[in-house]
Each structure stands twice: as structure tokens, then as C-alpha cells.
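User: Predict the full complex structure for these chains.
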Amino acid sequence: MYRVLAAILLSAATAFANDLPNKKYLDLPHIKIMVSAAEAKAKELNVSVTICIVDESGNLLFLEKGETASLNTIQFAQRKARHAAFYGRPSKDGADTIKKGNTEAMAFPEFFPNQGGLPIKIDGKILGGISASGSKSEIDEAIAQSGLDALLKQ
Amino acid sequence: MYRVLAAILLSAATAFANDLPNKKYLDLPHIKIMVSAAEAKAKELNVSVTICIVDESGNLLFLEKGETASLNTIQFAQRKARHAAFYGRPSKDGADTIKKGNTEAMAFPEFFPNQGGLPIKIDGKILGGISASGSKSEIDEAIAQSGLDALLKQ
Amino acid sequence: MYRVLAAILLSAATAFANDLPNKKYLDLPHIKIMVSAAEAKAKELNVSVTICIVDESGNLLFLEKGETASLNTIQFAQRKARHAAFYGRPSKDGADTIKKGNTEAMAFPEFFPNQGGLPIKIDGKILGGISASGSKSEIDEAIAQSGLDALLKQ
Amino acid sequence: MYRVLAAILLSAATAFANDLPNKKYLDLPHIKIMVSAAEAKAKELNVSVTICIVDESGNLLFLEKGETASLNTIQFAQRKARHAAFYGRPSKDGADTIKKGNTEAMAFPEFFPNQGGLPIKIDGKILGGISASGSKSEIDEAIAQSGLDALLKQ
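Assistant: Here is the predicted structure of the four-chain assembly.
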């Protein structure tokens, strides 16, 4: 009798815990595929860039400094990727926002106005951001896009 | 004789301590009423926002992340509320200040130029700030205003 | 012919994107149940505590300052919850670590050596941390535990 | 008729706003009296100290560097006063806590283990902290106590 009750309570507990919603997240195999695609694109374009991937909280999941990329790319890559993850928009939008005269955005948390970071979205939900830094901003973004394509369009 | 003197001195002491001025402050029951009203407004407008209330020193008294609000709303909500509490003005004024070209304000402490935070004033004295973040800025402010109305116009 | 190929590629793409792993996360309904249970326990014990819940990255999902809890509980509650989320262990372990003489831990990120914060784990995975601050550390932890029980043992 | 209703609603509003609790706070006249008493004590003891008063949130309400007090007293005085305000205990307790081997306290927010800061309490509620720095710790505390006595025992 008690066992039955216990079993019911347990299943109820399980049911409640299982009741929590789920969300996708970036695992290492997918991250490596994205990085490989970005590296291939950089090689194709004959540039050396720092590649970075962060999760939706801005946690650094991967960073690889480009062989001849300058040291400041280590910061630029992280900030571009975080902007993309925090705002769910390309970091280029940050640059455009300032160019349009909306200077107040400079005060926003994790806001970084430089092209080259892209949000990683699946089913409309932000999983993180990917970026490249070390070449011209348009090329940096094209490299980040290649990493994104490997995830979304393979 | 001495006792009388002692009694006089003591009463004087008491009088002096009691002489300190008083000020109202936000207690939990009122905070919950404000939050409930803000949540109701958000539900009515069918948006998910992070709601925040701080005291006049910027101490965080309450924060609740909106279910589908992005992670950056956690920072935005706190900064909007602190701006409102520190400057005694809606955080929209901060945005307007920058749009007018007074860029120097970007360097001011706790200054945050984004609509959605409102000062909590009673009898002309600042008790703190309330904010919402996660929807359009005007809607964020309308939700914060609903919380404020629950305190001021109930 | 091309459409067929496109369709195949698309389905492959979808397959690959869907391939990403899933993880549970704390949503607002469950957070409110945890908070209500913690508040009920605090009331039962006749103490006023600040209650805090963070996600696995330390992002603040909920904070409510206890009515008569001192202002420092706002910081203590957040740090206890973050320690629990970051290390997947009760913040009491942090205190024990130092008492054992492992002072070096004082330098660890988000390490906070004070009882009252507990990790929120489901199926062995950390979803975040819950804490209470304002009473004796053992009571703070008991209140956090009540919030946790509401999630795990309901 | 409508006016009557309006009047009722208004009075209800007022009632609700007035419903907020009150707390005493330190005003400038009382602060000046505390400082004068502390300065008198320092002169009597023939020492030069930095005197500091903060509110319960740690906001700096008054600071006066002693004529020959070293520059580091500017930081010491503020930290002693904040410890006292945050923990509602003399900053000497902080020093004793560490001496007893509870090293973990070094990680606590605003914790400062050095004698010379005292909490300002009225009716059991913390209004802030007062401190002195520049002489021996016991003398620093005696000077802070004189400032406190001027408020509590006049």
C-alpha cells in the first residue's frame, strides 16, 4: 500500500522534474565542424584570423588565435561574438547603430560596434555567437558566416 | 536633585536621537503589489519582460527574468532602474540627453540611456526605481508605469 | 531534379541542426514554485531572508530581498547561488574548503565560502543555483533546500 | 457625485502611499555634531585622523582627511565605516573573525578586518557607520565612539 503511494509520489516527482522545458545547446562536435569550416574559408581567402564561439550567456566555448593575427583580435573576436549572442544580431548592426547617430548604444552591456560576429540561432532561439577577427570586417563576417553555414546548411 | 538632572539629560538624549528625520522606504508588500501590476500589464500586452526594482541607492530589491526575455534584459533592467533612482528621472531622459548631443553624459555614474526605467517618488522624494526590459522601450516603460501606478494611484 | 537535390540537402541540413543536444533549463513557472516553497519555509521558521536563483552561467533569474534582511544579503545571496551553480556543490563546501586550510580557493572565480547556496541539478546536470541569506547559515540553507525540494520532490 | 468618488479614490491613494513604512536617516546637522565630537576627541588625544560617515548602503556622507594622517587612511576609514554599516558590527569584529581563523570571511562583500569603524544604530536599526583612521586602532575606535556618543548619549 505504502509502496504504491511512494511509487505514485515518485512518478509525480519525476513528472514534475521532467516538466522542465528543453533547449538546444552547442556541443563540441558541432563547434569543431563550425571552426573547421571557418578555418577553410580563411585559408581560401588567404587570411589569418582569430576565430571565437561563445554560448548565449557569452561564455567562451572556443577561441583560436590566427597565426599572424594581431593580439587585439583576441579581444575583438570575443566582443563581436558576445554582441551577437546578447543581441541576437550581427555585430555589424552595432556599428550601423552608431553610424546612424544612436550613440547611446555605446553604453549598452556587451554592445560592440564592429562587424564580424554573427548570432547562432536555431528555431529562432539564440544558442550563442561566432566571430572572426583579423582581416577586413566584411571578410571577418564572411568567415564567421562559413562557420554558421556548416551548422545550418550542411 | 541629581536624579532630576539625570532624568532631564536622558530625556534630552532621547529627544536628540528621536530628532533624526524620517523617510519612507519600499517594503516587500508594496514591492509585490508593484510587481504584480507590472506582470499583469505585461500579460495584457502579451510580452515577456524582466522586471526590476531597486532602492534609492541602487540596491537590488527585486528582479524577475521574463520567461522568454533575452539574457541581456537582466542587465538592462537593473541599469534602467538604477538610472531612474540615481537621477530621479525616467531612463528615457538619458536616451534623449544623448540624442540631443550631450554625449558627455555617457561618462556619468549609473547613467543609462535607454527607456523603460522610472523613478519611484513619494512626496517628491526618491524611494528607488522600477523598470522593465524585453519589449520595445515604450512598452517596457508602460509596464514599469503600471507598477508605479499600483503604488501611487491604487 | 534540382528540387529533389535541394530537398535532400535541406532535409540533411535539418537533420544536422536537429542533431544538436538538448538540456533542461529553469522556466519561470518552476522558479516561482521554488520561491514560494522557500518563502513558506522562511515564514514557518519566522525569519526574513533574501532569496535568489541563478542559471548555470550565474545569470540572475530571480532575487527578492527579505523585508528585514540586511542590505548585505543582496550580495551574499547572489554569491552563494553563483558558487553553487559554478561548482555544482553547496556553498557550505566552499566554507569547509577554507576551514580545512585550502586558502588558495579564495582566489577561484565565483568561489564563495558561506553556507546557504545549493546547486539545482536534474539528471546529474547543473541547471543553476538557489540560495537564501539573512538568517543563520544552516537556516539559510534549509530554506534554499525547501525551494529545491519543491522542484525535485513535489 | 463624481467629485465625491474622486475624493474617495484620492484619499484611498494617499492612504496607500502613506501606508509605506518609515525609517530614520542621518541628516547633515546630526552628522556635523558627530564629526565635531570625534574631532574634539582626536584633539584631546592629540592625534590626527581621517573621519568618515557612511549610510546603511555604504554611501559616503562625510569624509575629512586628518591634517597629518597618511593617504591610506582615506581608504581605511571608508572601508571600516562600510564594514560597520554592512554587518551592523564594529570593524574590530572583522579583525577578530580572521584572528580566530575564519579566513573565509576575507571573501565577504565589504568585509574589512580592521578596528576603528562602528555601526550607527537607532532602535536596533542600522543607519550607517562611523569610523576614524590614522592612529592606533583602539584610538581610532575611541574617536569613532565619541562621534557615536554625541548622537546617542547627548
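The longest strand of chain A covers residues 125-133.
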